[in-house]
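Bumping my old thread because nobody answered last time. Still need a sequence for this structure:
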């Protein structure tokens, strides 16, 4: 790469007219020559410094002529120093930057000079001198011409004042001999005025450098000048002068710099002292002016304007220096030889003949008969050698030189800097040449590792300063060519170093690269360089091959370092991914966050080379046998590292990216394994959460227990895991979420079933005991036989108050409610609706999977029955349920004794082998010990995939014929890959479980409520509980007294105490929603019990139960009001609101009270009127198949449906507040023991049982519909069409 860059540069850079050998020979300079002329400049500096230093007054004065001459000399040197301070050799733009005249300065000077010559300012005695005032008036008049557009410099005003003062003083007839002293005094006062003006009127121009330069001319006084003259007179001897020179620091430095011994050095000083005079300097200046006129060429500059500007500036500066010297010392004269045309011996000719790109022929020779006293024959190359020598010395002694002795702007020390400054000022070397030369020499030292980046930057800063002071287009051609040449050479050197560094890109420092880039950008910012190389950054592309090769080499090292022969492939891949990720992050984000000079992107080149190798390693591993059985958690650790690498590649990789990472094919099997593993562990998670739960409230605010927190923490972790995968395939990601919803739904179902079992066991623990009761175990053989025959019926007597509801049961019910709330939040977090919508829009038939299923498994749960026929003499029944298909019994539940509202909660499974619709007959029978079992009621329903292919659990409330209802829950085993399906199923499961647990709690209280609210207790209140002849005679002869409210309350005091205790427990531990639900169920049980006291169960036979008399009715309704007040919260009324308590069943009791004493005829008429209004609606099936076109939202908020139904019932009740329903009238007729009542009951039940003789033709159509109530699974064609449009018929499996 280095050779490539070098060859490219060699072919494009423009060279000069001479070859390298000629340039080398022309630049060969003898160091003795440089030593000689540097020493001459130092002698001149010594003379100037000696004249500026104040001396003591102990030196004797010399002759008046000597004094006068010395005064001239002193004044001359003062103005010579002034010119040096305010001018550069070939540039006056520096003056414009430091002492440029502005309108503020001109106005201030005019105002102050006017105050002086008009005698308004008399702050100093010298201002009263009429000659000084006259000079001020002249200068003010000249300045007024430039008041609005000032030009020139402060130096110009000083020269103007000097010339005006000289003319005024020479014309003074009074003091012609003292005009030299007055001239110095006038200059001092004027400079003080200038300083005051700058500080007050133009403070922005009052730089320390300018004020320091001006203040030099304010310090000397007459006594000091006289002392200087005395000193020069006293040190006229050669030996004293040599001693002074030898001790001068600059001369000592030159001696050490060129390694000259003392004797030779002293000999050289003796030789040069007579030569280095003011006259010789004046003669050199005259020769320089001559060369500017004669030897300079317009072709040496890019434009005529640039040439004329240089010539004008150079002549002006040289002329001012000569005039100042001759003005201060009129005795100075120029040697006669200087007036002769110097020809080829002029300075400009010598400069050009030695420059590499000179337009002057190198055949021009130097006339040795005419030489300069202070300027060497080849000043540029002499200065080159001098600066190089100074650099070598200062670099060698860098560590030993104190910081205070180093220059602030270069690597040079103060001594070297002062010597070079004195030489370039004397040799008339331009600032562009000096800056380019310094950069060239520093670049050479940099390539040799003698200097560093900071030194290169310092050299560039010096060059930039010069370019700001002088326009590069006004430079001489030779300087412009030298600038391009040094920038080209430095560019090659920097590119070589950058190429070497990028070959080890992982080791180099970002700051080092940035330093290289900064230097290259500086080079490429120079217009002169861009003229030769318009597109310099194009060469950076040559470094790309170096980075590519280095990236491949580095990959080999990473792979070798990361692989462990004893470890498996997955472990090695993890190590490679980790090491590669760390290195790429370091390179892309820290070392090379941006392309090098917006051209060379290191990170993208490296990734484009290394990522394919890593992808190949992953590809090989994914197809290996080890990949199929590796630990899932380690596989996902590799996946996460791959994901971070893929993000890096997408952000920092090449612009044209290839599909390297086949995440779907590499890690899809592992996602499936994780899902299967999670599914298998879910039941264990649920069991563990329940096992560790004590079912106590988490806090006073949080009403549920810890198992809900644990359960949903597991669910949320699983959801977060799938979300954090950031799976690239959206359809597959939706399938993951769907399968995860199945896991969550099954987990919640198991949790609900487990809580239900715990609640049932806690409430009915005796039912689940497999041991015989104590009274049976200790009894006789007859007692044991009776237990076996009757199944424990009537064994347990409820003599004592039942146990109270525990706080743990309440917490379990709260857990179900909390699960619904958390599942709702999880529904939102998983974006279920969005996923379902996306799947419907993007799943095509090719993506659909349909399983070939021939066998169908149905799950039938027999929940409960209500309002069955009383077939036993005690007005109750012993019901059980059987199911028949094709007249063959297939299922039988257990028997629940002595109840008309049994609860079984038994679950059965039925396999069907085809898709045809199967009609199932459910029969509720009354078990009898001796005679055959009697049928309480029957109903038909259907099983078919056509009705249950949504795989949801359907709750069927079937009307039994002739009376009663049977509640079943039927589902067909199967699943859909529809995320809403699983969430809907979970929400329904939670709602049913919540309803069932509340029902368990109320069922536990039911027997005690029925025992406390019974006819037997009414007899005790009315004191009719005594049995016997005398008690009957006593009741017949005594007058019945109606019991008061307190007596009625005392009669049910145990029930009130029980309810108060349990209602407080429920209030303390249940949530508001659950409290409302459970309490209303208890209230409903109380209303049902009071209804049972008033009326016998529905039957076609006249009841043996006697109707209540007036006193008994009053007791029942006093109990009703007492209990309503209790549930309402007493006097405060802050419990259950009255509108909830005064429901349909409550008003039905009030209607019974109104119609209780009606005769048979009126009751029959009322029934016939009610029948024609409500008969058709009463026989409709209350439960219908869920419409899958509805969203899952309806499943999550089933309470709203209940509210809507209750609102409809409330509106119906309010429109008919005291109207009895038909069944209530039939039950009331059972209390009438007359023929008309018996015949009417028999006729009505024959209609219900379907007797042909009793069916009217007008009711035939209605009866056909009643023979088989509509199944809740029945769907119309419109419903099916809407269902097919809403959801796919089948889901998508993970296999797809």
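Sorry it took so long. Here it is:
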């Amino acid at each position: 790469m280095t050779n490539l860059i070098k060859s490219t540069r060699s072919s494009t850079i423009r060279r000069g007219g001479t070859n390298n050998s000629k340039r080398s020979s022309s630049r060969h300079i003898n160091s003795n020559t440089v030593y000689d002329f540097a020493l001459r400049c130092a002698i001149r500096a010594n003379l100037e410094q000696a004249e500026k230093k104040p001396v003591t007054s102990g030196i004797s004065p010399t002759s008046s002529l000597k004094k006068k001459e010395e005064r001239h000399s002193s004044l001359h040197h003062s103005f010579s120093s002034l010119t040096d301070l305010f001018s550069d050799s070939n540039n006056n733009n520096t003056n414009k930057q430091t002492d440029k005249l502005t309108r503020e300065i001109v106005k201030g000077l005019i105002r102050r000079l006017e105050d002086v010559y008009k005698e308004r300012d008399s702050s100093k005695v010298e201002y009263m001198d009429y000659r000084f005032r006259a000079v001020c008036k002249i200068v003010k008049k000249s300045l007024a011409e430039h008041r609005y557009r000032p030009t020139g410099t402060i130096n110009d005003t000083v020269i103007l004042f000097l010339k005006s003062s000289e003319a005024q003083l020479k014309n003074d007839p009074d003091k012609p001999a003292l005009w030299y002293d007055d001239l110095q005094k006038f200059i001092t006062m004027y400079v003080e005025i200038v300083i005051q003006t700058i500080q007050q009127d133009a403070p922005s121009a009052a730089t320390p450098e300018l004020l320091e330069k001006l203040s030099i001319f304010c310090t000397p006084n007459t006594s000091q000048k006289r002392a200087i003259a005395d000193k020069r007179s006293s040190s006229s001897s050669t030996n004293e002068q040599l001693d002074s020179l030898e001790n001068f620091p600059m001369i000592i430095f030159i001696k050490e710099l060129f390694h000259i011994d003392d004797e030779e050095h002293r000999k050289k000083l003796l030789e040069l002292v007579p030569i280095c005079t003011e006259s010789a300097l004046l003669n050199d200046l005259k020769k320089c002016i001559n060369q500017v006129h004669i030897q300079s060429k317009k072709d040496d500059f890019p434009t005529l304007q640039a040439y004329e500007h240089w010539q004008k500036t150079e002549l002006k500066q040289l002329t001012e220096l000569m005039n100042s010297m001759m003005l201060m010392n009129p005795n100075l004269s120029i040697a006669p030889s200087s007036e002769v045309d110097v020809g080829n011996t002029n300075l400009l000719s010598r400069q050009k003949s030695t420059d590499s790109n000179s337009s002057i022929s190198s055949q021009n020779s130097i006339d040795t008969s005419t030489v300069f006293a202070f300027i060497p024959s080849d000043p540029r190359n002499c200065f080159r050698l001098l600066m190089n020598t100074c650099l070598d010395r200062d670099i060698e002694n860098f560590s030993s030189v104190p910081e205070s002795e180093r220059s602030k702007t270069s690597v040079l020390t103060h001594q070297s800097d002062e010597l070079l400054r004195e030489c370039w000022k004397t040799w008339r070397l331009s600032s562009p040449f000096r800056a380019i030369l310094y950069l060239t020499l520093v670049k050479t030292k940099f390539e040799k590792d003698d200097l560093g980046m900071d030194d290169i930057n310092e050299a560039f800063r010096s060059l930039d300063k010069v370019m700001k002071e002088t326009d590069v287009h006004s430079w001489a051609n030779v300087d412009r060519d030298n600038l391009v040449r040094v920038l080209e050479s430095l560019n090659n050197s920097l590119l070589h170093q950058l190429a070497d560094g990028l070959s080890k890109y992982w080791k180099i420092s970002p700051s080092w690269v940035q330093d290289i880039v900064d230097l290259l950008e500086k080079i490429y910012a120079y217009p002169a360089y861009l003229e030769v190389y318009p597109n310099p950054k194009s060469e950076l592309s040559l470094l790309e091959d170096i980075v590519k090769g280095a990236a491949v080499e580095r990959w080999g090292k990473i792979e070798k370092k990361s692989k462990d022969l004893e470890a498996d492939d997955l472990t090695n891949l993890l190590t490679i991914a980790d090491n590669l990720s760390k290195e790429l992050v370091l390179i892309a984000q820290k070392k090379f966050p941006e392309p090098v000079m917006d051209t060379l992107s290191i990170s993208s080149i490296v990734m484009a080379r290394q990522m394919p190798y890593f992808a190949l390693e992953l590809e090989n591993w994914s197809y290996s046998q080890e990949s199929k059985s590796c630990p899932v958690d380690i596989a996902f650790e590799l996946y996460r590292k791959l994901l971070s690498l893929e993000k890096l590649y997408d952000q920092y990789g090449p612009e044209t990216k290839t599909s390297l990472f086949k995440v779907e094919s590499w890690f899809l099997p592992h996602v499936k394994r994780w899902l299967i593993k999670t599914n298998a562990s879910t039941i264990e998670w649920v069991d563990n959460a329940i096992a560790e739960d004590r079912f106590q409230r988490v806090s006073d605010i949080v009403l549920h227990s810890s198992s809900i927190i644990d359960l949903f923490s597991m669910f949320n972790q699983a959801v977060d895991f799938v979300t954090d995968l950031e799976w690239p395939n959206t359809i597959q990601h939706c399938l993951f979420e769907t399968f995860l919803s199945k896991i969550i739904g099954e987990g919640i179902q198991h949790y609900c079933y487990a809580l239900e079992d715990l609640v049932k066991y806690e409430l009915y623990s005796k039912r689940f005991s497999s041991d015989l009761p104590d009274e049976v175990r200790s009894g006789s053989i007859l007692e044991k036989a009776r237990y076996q025959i009757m199944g424990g019926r009537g064994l347990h007597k409820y003599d004592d108050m039942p146990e109270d509801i525990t706080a743990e049961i309440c917490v379990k019910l709260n857990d179900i409610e909390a699960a619904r709330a958390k599942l709702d939040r999880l529904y939102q977090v998983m974006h279920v609706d969005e996923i379902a919508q996306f799947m419907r829009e993007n799943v095509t038939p090719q993506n659909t999977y349909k399983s070939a299923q021939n066998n169908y498994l149905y799950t039938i749960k027999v929940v409960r029955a209500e309002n069955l026929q009383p077939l036993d003499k005690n007005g109750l029944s012993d019901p059980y349920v059987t199911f028949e298909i094709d007249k063959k019994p297939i299922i039988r539940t257990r028997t629940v004794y002595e109840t008309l509202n049994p609860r079984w909660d038994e679950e059965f499974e039925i396999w069907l082998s085809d898709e045809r619709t199967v009609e199932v007959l459910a029969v509720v029978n009354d078990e009898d010990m001796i005679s055959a079992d009697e049928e309480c009621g029957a109903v038909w329903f259907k099983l078919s995939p056509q009705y249950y292919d949504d795989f949801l659990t359907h709750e069927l409330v079937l009307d039994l014929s002739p009376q009663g209802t049977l509640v079943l829950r039927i589902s067909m085993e199967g699943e859909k890959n529809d995320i809403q399906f699983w969430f809907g199923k979970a929400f329904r499961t939670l709602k049913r479980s919540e309803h069932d647990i509340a029902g368990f709690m109320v069922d536990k209280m039911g027997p005690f409520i029925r025992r406390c609210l019974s006819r037997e207790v009414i007899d005790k209140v009315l004191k009719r509980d005594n049995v016997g002849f005398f008690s009957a005679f006593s009741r017949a002869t005594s007058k019945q007294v109606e019991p008061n409210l307190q007596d009625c309350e005392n009669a049910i005091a145990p029930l009130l105490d029980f309810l108060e205790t349990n209602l407080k427990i429920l209030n303390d531990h249940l949530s508001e929603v659950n409290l409302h639900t459970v309490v209303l169920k208890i209230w409903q049980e109380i209303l049902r019990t009071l209804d049972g006291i008033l009326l016998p169960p529905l039957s076609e036979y006249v009841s043996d139960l006697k109707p209540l008399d007036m006193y008994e009715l009053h007791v029942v309704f006093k109990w009703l009001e007492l209990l309503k007040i209790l549930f309402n919260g007493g006097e405060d009324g802050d419990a259950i609101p009255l509108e909830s308590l005064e429901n349909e069943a409550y008003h039905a009791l009030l209607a019974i009270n109104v119609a209780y004493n009606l005769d048979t005829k009126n009751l029959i008429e009322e029934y016939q009127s009610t029948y024609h209004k409500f008969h058709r609606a009463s026989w409709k099936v209350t439960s219908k198949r869920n419409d899958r076109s509805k969203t899952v939202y309806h499943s999550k908020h089933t309470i709203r449906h209940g509210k809507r139904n209750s609102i409809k019932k409330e509106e119906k009740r309010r429109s008919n507040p005291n109207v009895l329903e038909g069944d209530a009238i039939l039950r009331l007729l059972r209390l009438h023991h007359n023929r008309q009542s018996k015949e009417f009951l028999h006729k009505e039940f024959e209609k219900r049982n379907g007797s042909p003789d009793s069916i009217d033709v007008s009711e035939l159509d209605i009866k056909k519909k009643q023979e088989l109530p509509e199944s809740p699974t029945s769907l119309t064609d419109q419903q099916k069409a809407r269902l097919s449009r809403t959801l796919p018929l089948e889901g998508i499996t993970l296999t797809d």
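The first strand starts at residue 856 and ends at 866. Let me know if any region looks off to you.
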